[in-house]
Specification:
single chain; 396 residues; alpha/beta; DNA polymerase, domain 1; Rossmann fold; 7-stranded mixed sheet; 15 helices; 40% helix; globular; binds S-adenosylmethionine
Length: 396
């Protein structure tokens, strides 16, 4: 991996989203979710360790604009100001091949790369593409315009998936895709405030209409709350030191102010793994956008909404995301069974479906060589049963 690619990956790792309730309340809620996860994880098939987060790969286009403002790139059309190589697109397309006729919800449309691949490969499917970022919505609309009535793009949070489905009059869902993480445009534009590498406002909101930005958190939380937020979302080791320095330096308004305070709080000897501010920016981004709370709500709504034989496919880029996906699918497979592992179920839980394959799939070495940012991707898939007794978990 080149140094610039490594830097991009590190920055992307440091990025994640929240919605409208206060982050502390969301964090408390998530702690109870984490406890439930631990129980479910004891019952679910294990996977290998998950590396640091990365994300799908957006890059500003280097070519000139074609007449229809979209790009033919390796068979995919892409918006001229978002050129994106969707991660594990072949696997995603193959996983949606057997789903029933109907609508696939791409909950993280971005530039629309996965949506385009699904629409091209499966003429029996339509796509409802969602994104919370208005810039991504505009890009996805341009990319999906050639598909006419087969594709709709709506600005929405997947944490409010039920409302998005109701608002779009979608009653039967053939598939749901989550391609988690952040986009390069979110990362690359200093004014969005995600990057510790360029000076910008301490913002980090995926949707600029969200009420609380990163500056609000940094300047209003008390020291203990801030330390806990950092520790829970990635910066476990120096959370208290950093929180102390931040609180004594505030008010903070810019990314570079925060990055230099963090750098000063972390001992030089501990700075071997990337930029010292990487984990702090990731922790704030996760809190600002409530990325894990969004995933928890979105995943369970997606599983509920699936038609018989419908599939939910999730690509995660760091262990916090992957744990939630794994636990959410495991709960759906067990139907929320609370009986001791290894004993017959007597609690009356009804399994909702099966894992399409055990564990998580990873991108091929060829894809990673082509797109290093795919390296940390982990793909899992769940299929809603077609009858009240689902097929056992297996490969397909
Ligand atoms: C990795 S990109 C997706 C790229 C996309 N699959 C493609 O092929 O172009 C992740 C996208 O998810 C969006 N996103 C993140 N959290 C979201 C949420 N809770 N609701 C809706 N969109 C979200 C981000 O704004 C970003 O555009």
């Amino acid at each position: 991996m080149s140094s610039s690619q490594k830097i991009d990956t590190e920055e992307r790792n440091a990025l994640q989203p929240q919605h409208d309730t206060h982050p502390i309340a969301r964090a408390r809620h998530r702690r109870s979710w984490s406890r439930r996860c631990r129980t479910w994880l004891m019952r679910s098939p294990s996977t290998g360790p998950v590396e640091e987060s990365s994300s799908a790969h957006f890059q500003p286009s280097r070519w000139s604009t074609p007449p229809n403002d979209t790009w033919p790139v390796e068979g995919l059309r892409m918006s001229s100001d978002f050129a994106h190589r969707p991660v594990m697109a072949d696997e995603v397309v193959a996983l949606f091949a057997p789903v029933p006729l109907g609508v696939v919800v791409d909950t993280t449309a971005g530039a629309g790369g996965h949506s385009v691949a699904i629409l091209d490969a499966h003429p029996h499917l339509e796509v409802l593409a969602l994104d919370r970022d208005p810039d991504a919505v505009a890009a996805a609309r341009r990319a999906l315009a050639p598909y006419g009535r087969r594709a709709r793009v709506v600005q929405a949070r997947f944490g409010a998936l039920d409302e998005a489905l109701a608002g779009s009059s979608v009653t039967s869902v053939s598939g749901v895709l989550f391609d988690l993480g952040v986009s390069s445009p979110q990362l690359d534009r200093p004014e969005r405030g995600f990057s510790y590498r360029s000076a910008g406002p301490l913002d980090m909101r995926m949707d600029p209409a969200q009420p609380h930005d990163a500056a609000h958190l940094v300047n209003t939380m008390d020291e203990r709350e801030l330390a806990r937020l950092l520790a829970e979302n990635g910066e476990a080791r120096f959370a208290r030191r950093i929180a102390r320095r931040v609180v004594s330096a505030r008010p903070l308004h810019t990314t570079d102010e925060l990055a230099s305070i963090v750098a000063g709080a972390i001992p030089a000897a501990a700075r071997r793994r990337g930029h010292p501010a990487r984990r702090v920016f990731q922790a704030l981004r996760v809190a600002v956008n409530d990325e894990l709370g969004e995933l928890e709500s979105g995943l369970s709504a997606a599983i509920e909404a699936l038609a018989p034989g419908g599939r939910c496919v999730a690509i995660s880029y760091h262990s916090g995301e992957d744990r939630l996906v794994k636990a959410g699918f495991a709960e759906a497979v067990s139907g929320g069974c609370v009986c001791p592992p290894g004993l017959p179920c007597t609690c009356g839980a009804e399994p909702l479906g099966r894992l399409v394959f055990r564990g998580a799939r990873r991108p091929s070495p060829a894809e990673v060589a082509h797109n290093p940012r795919a390296q940390s991707a982990r793909l899992r898939a769940f299929e809603r049963s077609t009858s009240s007794s689902p097929a056992p978990t297996g490969d397909s």
